Amino acid sequence: MKIKAIALDLDGTLLTSDKKISDINKEVLKYLENKGVKIFIVTGRTYISAKPFAQELGIDSSIIAYNGAKVVNYKNDELIFNLPLEEKYSKKIIKMAKEKGFHVNLYQNNKWFVEELDNDETRHYANHTGLTPVKKSFDSFDDYSMTKITIQNMENSKEFNEFCDEIKDVLGNDVYTAKSQSFLFEVLNKNVNKGLVLEKVLKSYGISTEECVAFGDANNDLEMLTTVKYGVAMGNSDIELKRQVNYVTDTNDNNGVAKFLKKYFF
């Protein structure tokens, strides 16, 4: 097998449970990049949250953030691609979530907005990402075009999952939805997902999807893993994702990325 690109989800994939890149993963990725392979971070995280990991790896490529809604050259912060959720859908989702009492995160201009700072959802997400929340009334935005919206429920309750299904039923194909974590439901522009945007970025580098291996662990990684020739689910992925891809590797805490790359591409 010969590859020209590697696409990496962060949480549950490249990162260990304590949000670190292992030395072995780092060593293998650097080795392959030195051989001319392009390394891409493709994450549901914000650009600001993903950038330190790109810097740690020292990769020479772009960051695909917000599940593909924004692509940035992290070395100079140049915006390459941006496709926000349309205002009418943002307003609808905010209204529906507030009526049901669910926590909402809004993302705009590389900032994370919440209405409540002192709750489990905000504290957990801040610890999870290293981001600082900005408190703002959701009735006070001048522009409601959001990079993405997430609905969050740390209990992953039955009511929460029913509400996620309700959003999908009401908005249908007008938006893209996926769970990036069991407690985090994401809503984006309908023309955005990791697979669609990765393919565009690869093409800009003269690389085909047949020449790319991608790693992921969650529902929001499915399009990416099925777009490329070598889609790899982590050992810690749920069984449904594993069934839909061609390859499965070890877990994120057992250097699954490095083990797969060593096995097939060294």
From TrEMBL:
InterPro entries according to UniProt: Cof (IPR000150), HAD-like_sf (IPR036412), HAD-SF_hydro_IIB (IPR006379), HAD_sf (IPR023214)
One MF term in the entry's GO annotations: phosphatase activity
A Pfam match: Hydrolase_3
Keyword annotations from UniProtKB, A to Z: Hydrolase
Superkingdom per UniProt: Bacteria
Gene Ontology cellular component list: cytosol
Entry annotated with the keyword Hydrolase: yes
Protein name: Cof-type HAD-IIB family hydrolase
Organism of this sequence: Fusobacterium mortiferum
Organism classification: Bacteria, Fusobacteriati, Fusobacteriota, Fusobacteriia, Fusobacteriales
